[in-house]
Every structure is written in C-alpha cells, then in structure tokens.
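Reopening this ticket.

The earlier resolution said the output was attached, but the attachment link was broken on my side. Pasting everything inline this time so it's all in one place.
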Amino acid sequence: MKQQIHVAAGAIQDASGRILVSKRPEHVHQGGLWEFPGGKLEPGESPERGLDRELFEELGVRVLSSRPLIRVHHDYGDRHVLLDVHRISSFAGEPLGREGQPLEWVYPEDMDPQAFPVADRPIITSLRLPALYLITGGDARKPDGFKARLCRALEGGIRLVQLRAHELGDAAYARLAADAYEICEQRGVRLLLNREPGLVRDLPCHGVHVTASSLAGLVHRPLDDERLVGASCHAAEDLKRASDLGLDYALLSPVSPTASHPDASPLGWDGFAALADRAALPVYALGGLRPSDLDRAFRHCAQGIAAIRGLWPD
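Inline output:
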C-alpha cells in the first residue's frame, strides 16, 4: 500500500522578504535538495500545531504569526505527499540547524526550482506571486482616463495586473499595452496581457493570461519560462490542464455572484476550496470579491483574490 505522508512546512520570511530554506540529508528521500523546513504531522495534530513543534525541534524557533500559503498534493510513485504550507511572517528565536542541516536565506525570485523536490516547486511559484491580482475594468476606449485609474490602483499597492480590454481591436490594444507596460515597469509591477498568446508574443509584457476556451486548445505552454502564464478555470479539468501545461497560476471562478456573469452558478467558498485544494498550482479566487475577503480566501486554499470592481478605482 502506498505510503501517505502529511507534512507541515513553513515559508519563514525575514524583514527583507527572504525565505529560509534548509538542505535535506543526502541519505533520505530527495536527499541533497533544498526544502522548506517542517515535518510529518502526528496523528490528530493540526498543521499549525505540528508546524510549530517541527520548527522548534529543527530550528529552535516558535511561530508567532502565520497564514496558509498553499497545499500541495504530489505522488512520487512510492509515496503520496501532502504539503500543508504556511507563510510565517513573525517568529521568536534565531533559526539554527539543530540537526546539522545547512540553512540559507533566499529571495523567492532567486530560488532555483530544480534544486528543490518536485512537490516543493509550486511553493516557490506561490511565494513569487502577490495576494491581490487586478483585472482592469472599463474605459479602455478612453486611454487617458484608463491610465490614470491604473496609476491610482498601483499606488494602492497592486503588484500584478491583467490588461483585459476586450472592447479594443488588436491595434488599439497593442498601443494601450505599451503604455500600461511602461506604467507598470516603472513601479515594479508585472503586467499580463489577456489576448491570444500568438497576437501578443512580441508586445512588451511580463506574461499572458488565457481564457478557459483558449486553455482548452493549448497543446503546450505559450511563451518562455521567464514570463508568467495563467488561465481562467471553472472546473477540476481546467485546473488539471493548466497544471499539466506548466502554467504558473489559475483564476477559479465564480466564487460569488457577479454582475459581469449573472447567469453563472457560484462555487461558494467550500466549492472553491474543494477544487483549489487538489490543484497543483497557485489558484486565485475570482468573482464578487474585495480585499476584505483575503483572510477567508487564504483559509480556503487560495493564493489570494483577483477582482475587477473590487480593485479597479472609481
């Protein structure tokens, strides 16, 4: 019978945004690779309690403040692993390798996924993505006002933007994309283009977002690995396809009723969590949400929330 292992792992963050990683002993499963500290849960133990215990045993630190980051299911063939990962923003003590394991503080952008076990790689992607994801709203046919609203959104702390603008033709969209890219680039914000990948491959951008219908027609990941690629998903088969294609994230909707899709049946938070929990990539909750929904989203296996009206300035 295949071994089932439930692990609590911690992405411990310092004041500069670096994450603590430790190296696995050479003689164990996935030995010699870097990992996020943690360990197997005891029977009946919650992930929070188990993580605090494991980190004290391994590193000599106590968790003061944390939140769910991502849950990763992975089948290694001889064993099935569930990683219950929390992002730890506050802790007591100075981390030390109490079991002789090497430790390093690394920015997520500098992590080499190939140096980590396969099950840990979605964690790296999750750490590189923000919790809030803005999908631009209306007024794209009035570019000056549109760009002013985009600037106001970025001043509010948005760090990931999808340029939607379906009302524009390809030429007008390309012009707006160039202007939006300049605005985002100056502020350290990533811009994703919502257009067929073949149409925007040569436009300035940090990645693309594909619709659910486009996702169904993809046979390989579009663009290079240096740029983000995400997709709209509505069901388990969409999430599996996005994962199989090696995409970086998914938007799963609708969580709540929305004005833009009034006929769509909402998933509700329990329905969202049931799907997102089994996904092998970070999943944003979308549909009638606002920043005030973030804590609930984290508790239901979400990377964060994506929104138009909830994040696009009036």
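Reporter confirms the inline version is readable. The first strand starts at residue 3 and ends at 12. The longest helix spans residues 170-186.
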